[in-house]
Each structure stands twice: as structure tokens, then as C-alpha cells.
């Protein structure tokens, strides 16, 4: 993992983009982390990353967790049996 001040990142963006393929680049301002530069392999990876930080999606996940806490969930096998039944 590399660490780069904003000014240095701006001056050498192409080099840091290349470095991000080897691992995250932490961007700092006044010595404090403010962002992370990540390399992505494909559009699916970008979609997963965007979803992970989307408040609406996080709300859906939290509502599902709350429902499981209150009502309980279903087992792994039961879930897949229901999925198979829906595709028939």
C-alpha cells in the first residue's frame, strides 16, 4: 500500500494509477487520509464497489438484517430449494 499527498498525486497521477494495480493508494491532505485510489478489473467490480457505498443499498441491507433479527431467517438448503422452485 502506498501513501501519497494530494499535491504529489496531482503531479504524478499516471504513476499512481499504475501503482493502484498493485494495491490501494491512500491519499492524504495535511498528513491525514482523505481518500483511497483503487484499481478495478471490470465493470462488475465497479458496480460492487459503488453498491457497497450507496446509502439506499445499505438501507436495504440493514432492513433485511433487522427482519432476520426479528423474525429469523431461513436455512441455506431451504433458500436454495426456494430458488430452484422459482426457476421452474
Describe this structure in words.
This protein has 88 residues and is an alpha+beta fold. It has a three-stranded mixed β-sheet with strand order 1-2-3. Strand 2 and strand 3 form a beta hairpin. The termini are far apart.
N- to C-terminal distance = 48 Å
- Unreliably modeled segments: none
* Percentage of residues in DSSP E strands: 15-25%
Q: What number is the mean pLDDT?
A: 94
Evaluate the radius of gyration: 20 Å
Helix-strand makeup class: alpha+beta
**Total count of helical runs of at least 4 residues:** 5
Which range best describes the helical content: under 10%, 10-25%, 25-40%, 40-55%, 55-70% or over 70%?
Answer: 55-70%
Characterize the biggest β-sheet: 3 strands, mixed
Question: In one word, what is the shape?
Answer: elongated
Q: Quaternary status of these chains?
A: single chain
Neighbour order of strands in the largest sheet: 1-2-3
Q: Report the strand count.
A: 3
Query: From N to C, what is the helix and strand string?
Result: EHHEEHHH
Amino acid at each position: 500500500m502506498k501513501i501519497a499527498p494530494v499535491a504529489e498525486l496531482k503531479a504524478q497521477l499516471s504513476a499512481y494509477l499504475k501503482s493502484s494495480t498493485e494495491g490501494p493508494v491512500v491519499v492524504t491532505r495535511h498528513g491525514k487520509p482523505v481518500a483511497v485510489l483503487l484499481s478495478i478489473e471490470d465493470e462488475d467490480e465497479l458496480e460492487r464497489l459503488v453498491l457497497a457505498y450507496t446509502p439506499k443499498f445499505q438501507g436495504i441491507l440493514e432492513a433485511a438484517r433487522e427482519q432476520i433479527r426479528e423474525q429469523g431467517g431461513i436455512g441455506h438448503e431451504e433458500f436454495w430449494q426456494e430458488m430452484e422452485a422459482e426457476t421452474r
